[in-house]
Design a protein that fits this description.
The protein is of the alpha/beta class. It is built from eleven helices and twelve strands. The radius of gyration is 21 Å and the shape is globular.
Length: about 350
């Protein structure tokens, strides 16, 4: 954990630090195609050096670089962009709680993240320490969870809950486990893809102690699934902690079938089940990352039948305004009368199907 904390402190957060990093590696920071003088519109820059080392600095369109360094496109704000694109505020009964679905709630512990992704849907919230839960707000959030017996699962999010030390997470786990109706704890995190060393044996044992704890890792590109990442995830999986992944569909990052197939296969090989492929939320300054839904559906059609079902996540849209997620899966079954259907396989071939009488 100390190595993780040191790596986090050494993150690049200013233009001067980024120029120095490049010069250390023999890269001229004044190359015009690097456009390093661009300032972000809202979200400040934060990039750990581990992730910077994964970037191909000879490629101005490198998909990893595109995720973490601002470009002029970030200044383009569309009239229908939303500062709260998935409606968190509409379902926030007390600070730190988002209760959108009946049986589960988000507990937003902090606004801190190990990296500031340029497509972040909580960009108005992330990176502002004043928005991290105060002790009194945290206690109010726990009281809310305890008072609502319909809540079966709590999802730790933010920000990123893995910025906290294990001693803090242990206290959170203990307090959630003291609420009888909370049966499942889930952690949403980008940290393992950015600083995989955070997944230590101590953390894995902690998660096992308070099982069932599910770890859901945000991974967008095959090059994020490094040998180090796979090894550290293995520490967690070996101790019986289920690990899933979430991916955001991003223009210029993973918007082709070959990249997605490679990513999902590598995740499954690392014993991670691809869970969600997210349609990009309508956050300000992110439209240059947008892939139209019809293109996303076509990508899923290209994948189905050509990669294992283990590798296929559910393609989802989080409806603006806080109305929840809906699957955007291409349709394969079309009713054509009572008990009759036309079904389409992964090759696009059409077949008649009659449902047997029950």
């Amino acid at each position: 954990m100390e190595n993780f904390a040191a790596a986090l402190r050494a993150s690049v957060t200013t233009l001067a630090e980024l120029r120095a990093y490049l010069q250390e590696r023999g890269i001229d920071p004044d190359r015009p195609e690097l456009y390093l003088d661009v300032q972000p519109h809202v979200l400040p820059v934060r990039i750990p050096r581990y992730y910077l080392d994964l970037i191909d600095w000879q490629d101005p369109d490198d998909p990893l670089r595109r995720q973490v360094l601002p470009t002029p496109d970030e200044h383009a704000i569309l009239p229908d962009d939303l500062t709260d694109p998935i409606g968190d505020r509409a379902h926030q009964p007390v600070p730190g709680i988002v209760h959108r679905y009946p049986d589960r709630a988000l507990l937003l512990l902090t606004s801190a993240c190990v990296v500031h992704c340029r497509f972040c849907f909580r960009r108005e919230f992330i990176g502002k320490p004043a928005l991290t839960l105060r002790p009194d707000q945290y206690e109010e959030a726990l009281h809310y969870l305890a008072d609502h017996s319909e809540i079966w699962e709590v999802i730790l999010s933010g920000g990123d809950p893995l910025v906290f030390r294990d001693v803090y997470l242990r206290r959170v786990f203990e307090q959630l486990r003291a609420i009888p109706h909370i049966r499942v704890i889930r952690i949403h995190t980008r940290t393992p893809a950015i600083l995989p060393g955070r997944l230590t044996t101590a953390f894995a044992e902690l998660a096992r102690t308070y099982a069932p704890v599910y770890l859901v890792i945000h991974v967008n590109h095959p090059r994020e699934v490094t040998d180090t990442f796979t090894r550290q995830v293995g520490i967690v999986v070996d101790r019986g902690v289920p690990v899933l992944s979430q991916t955001v569909l991003l223009r210029g990052v993973n918007d082709d079938a070959a990249t997605l197939a490679t990513l999902f296969r590598k995740l499954v090989e690392a014993r991670i089940k691809p869970y969600y492929l997210h349609q990009l939320d309508r956050a300000p300054g992110t439209n240059h990352f947008r892939v139209p839904i019809r293109e996303g559906q076509q990508l899923l059609r290209q994948l189905r039948g050509h990669v294992s079902g283990l590798c296929l996540p559910t393609y989802v849209l989080d409806i603006p305004g806080g109305h929840g997620k809906v699957p955007l899966t291409p349709e394969y079954v079309h009713p054509s009368g009572d008990d009759f259907y036309e079904v389409v396989n992964y090759r696009g071939e059409r077949f008649a199907y009659q449902e047997p009488n029950v």
